[in-house]
Design brief:
The structure is a single chain. The protein folds into two domains: 295 residues, FAD/NAD(P)-binding domain; 89 residues, D-Amino Acid Oxidase, Chain A, domain 2. Helices cover 36% and strands 26% of the residues. Helix 1 packs parallel to helix 4, helix 1 packs parallel to helix 8 and helix 10 packs across helix 11. The radius of gyration is 21 Å and the shape is globular. Bound molecules: flavin-adenine dinucleotide (FAD).
């Protein structure tokens, strides 16, 4: 039954697991990466890649697809839906800090598939699909994982396991860890369309956060589609939310016209703010959505997961190849747990509040803070470095 004996088993080939596996494989570590679903997930979730993430992927030799097919967005926008007042932020102002002074807009599944294909080309790595982890046990020298395939059960022995198996992580559940936090009352409804919605607005960017007390929205462009994310009351059934009637209402309000819009995707998301109590238990480490979930406001979920993957990868290479102390993986936990809590959670909760809160104080507060940023170059630079995630990486590196 023992089918493989490797140094690292990576569970899940989403964007985070595939990057973790490729990083290790490129450093000569023997890696088995398994994915439960036949092709990997193809739904539209993350679309924004921030500058430090593009740098990490470029260093790994895996940024070609993003740089070739992704849309470069040096400028992004906050818009007040009622007054149509806009505030723009230009990442070229931090060109001295990064060789990629823009966000890249591209579907996350395209990156995940591209990285997994590169992984398959590595002689010391395997990437296999329709392999679902069902159980694990660990001892002093490693972990034994039991994996279900369409035809049989397989057993993989590894010195370390990386759980990159997403929000419902079996790795996390298997370790019986708590995942404290909260879930927003409203659902988030996401449509995609090839319709040129930019024609209905003055000066739309590729990334637009539109605040409104009744129906805030995020308008995002990916290479072939616009994505429109709106909140949906929890008391409306999923079937109603996905109906043509709801779709027509949303687009009628958005475009202020009765044009019939064809959608390519209609998806409902529950949005959580949660951080797992531990990122590491013995030889089992976790990265990405398996240990942290947050609102998509700011585009930090996948990006911070990729930052986890590289941080952990560096430590495992030191341990497995350069005689590094095994306690280094505890440093991974200290660094990434702290920035997840202090930056990603705090900032996404704040960003979401600013989008959804009503008139009065919240709106005035938002205008004042945007105006302050527009008028103060030093403050704006700090804001750009923070929102593009450079500051959180520096903060993590400073933790010993
Ligand atoms: C509407 C929306 C918009 C978003 N936009 C952004 C954005 O712009 N930028 C950003 O940074 N983040 C964004 N996010 C968050 C982002 O999508 C997630 O953070 C990201 O998908 C996490 O990647 P992951 O690889 O950790 O998990 P996943 O993408 O969920 O991948 C986990 C993989 O593990 C596999 N798996 C699960 N269980 C098993 C098992 N037992 N055995 C084997 N394989 C298993 C799954 O099939 C899956 O392929 C958004 C999220 C939403 C909902």
């Amino acid at each position: 039954m023992l089918t493989q004996d490797v140094e690292v088993l990576v569970v899940g080939l989403g964007p985070v697991g595939s990057v973790a596996a490729l990083y290790l494989a490129r450093q000569g570590i023997t890696v088995a990466a398994i994915e439960a679903v036949a092709q990997g997930a193809t739904d539209l979730r993350a679309s924004t890649f921030h500058a430090p993430t593009i740098e990490m992927l470029d260093d790994l030799g895996a940024a070609e697809l993003l740089l070739r097919d992704g849309l470069k967005a040096p400028v992004y926008q906050f818009r007040d839906r009622q007054s149509q007042e806009t505030f723009e932020f230009d990442l070229t102002e931090i060109s001295d800090r990064t060789r990629f002074p823009f966000r890249i807009q591209c579907e996350q599944h395209r990156l995940a598939q591209d990285v997994a294909t590169r992984l398959e080309e590595e002689p010391n790595a395997s990437a296999t699909y329709q392999r679902r982890l069902v159980f694990m046990e660990q001892d002093e020298s490693g972990v034994t994982a039991y994996v279900e395939t369409p035809h049989s059960m397989e057993k993989i022995r590894a010195r370390y396991v990386i759980g990159a198996d997403g929000a419902n992580s079996l790795v996390r559940k298997n370790l019986d860890l708590s995942f404290p936090g909260f879930t927003y009352d409203e659902k988030f409804l996401c449509f995609s369309t090839a319709y040129p919605i930019e024609n209905a607005f003055d000066k739309l960017c590729y990334v637009n956060y539109v605040s409104d007390p009744e129906e805030w929205m995020v308008l995002l462009r990916v290479p072939t589609l616009w994505r429109i994310l709106v909140p949906a009351p929890e008391n409306i059934s999923d079937a109603d939310l996905l109906s043509d009637a709801t779709k027509n209402d949303v687009f009628r309000r958005l475009l202020r016209s009765d044009t019939e819009i064809t959608t390519n995707h209609r998806t409902i998301y529950r949005v959580h703010q949660r951080v797992c109590e531990r990122f590491v238990m013995g030889r089992i480490c976790m990265v990405g959505d398996a240990v942290h979930l947050n609102s998509p406001m700011g585009g930090f979920g996948m990006n911070s997961g990729i930052h986890d993957a590289i941080n952990l990868g560096e430590k495992l290479v030191k341990i497995l190849r350069h005689g590094g102390d095994e306690k280094l993986i505890q440093l991974y936990e200290r660094q990434r747990h702290k920035v997840t809590t202090d930056f990603v959670q705090t900032q996404t909760i704040e960003n979401t509040r600013m989008m959804r809160e009503g008139w009065g104080n919240a709106r005035n507060e938002r205008r004042e803070s945007m105006n302050r940023l527009q008028n103060d170059a030093e403050l704006r630079r700090k804001f750009l470095l923070k929102q593009s995630m450079f500051t959180s990486l520096e903060d993590a590196a400073a933790i010993a």
